[in-house]
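ERR on first pass: missing label on line 2. Operator R.T. fixed the label and resubmitted. Corrected input:
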Amino acid sequence: DIQLTQSPSFLSASVGDRVTITCRASQGISSYLAWYQQKPGKAPKLLIYAASTLQSGVPSRFSGSGSGTEFTLTISRLQPEDFATYYCQQRNSYPVTFGGGTKVEIK
Amino acid sequence: EVQLVESGGGLVQPGGSLRLSCAASGFTFSDHYMDWVRQAPGKGLEWVGRIRNKANSYTTEFAASVKGRFTISRDDSKNSLYLQMNSLKTEDSAVYYCARPRSYDYYMDVWGKGTTVTVSS
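pass 2 clean. output:
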């Protein structure tokens, strides 16, 4: 199985900050990676797919990059509504796997 | 409006069984693969399994943690997805989401609100 390791698992940031979250895969997954945002008590929401393509309707302050085994999600200027938990997910091979999550909290 | 609505969650004893349902609307259900994803209290997301469409013989894939205990089925005439859970363990307690992988790249772009399963004596 492909393991996805996210770092950090928790980060505290202020509105307006630039935030970067890393997702490392245990083996190469090309660009078959997505990022999801989840708020408490809600279902996950697809933000980015194919490592760097913004899902329709997602603000442009979100961006993704990487390929192979290392990927990043960047929020250029953190907004109040961005405080949430973020997960990466690979679809390169079965079983589909998710990273452990990164919780972004208000400093 | 594209929508997925799960139902069937509840309290069940260890070793028991439960069947979850997911009602789909607003899209051509029969064209899509469908997934189940779960989230234990305070934990991250865990993919449970997938069922492919008729064109791909309704074949299934499962996470190792549920293989042999859970089955996924669908009724395209009813736009419905099912998760049959047998031999339930306390560690199966979670919110269970159904999710729709997109037909062209299989990223999960539509999610239900989830249904809660609690396995406890």
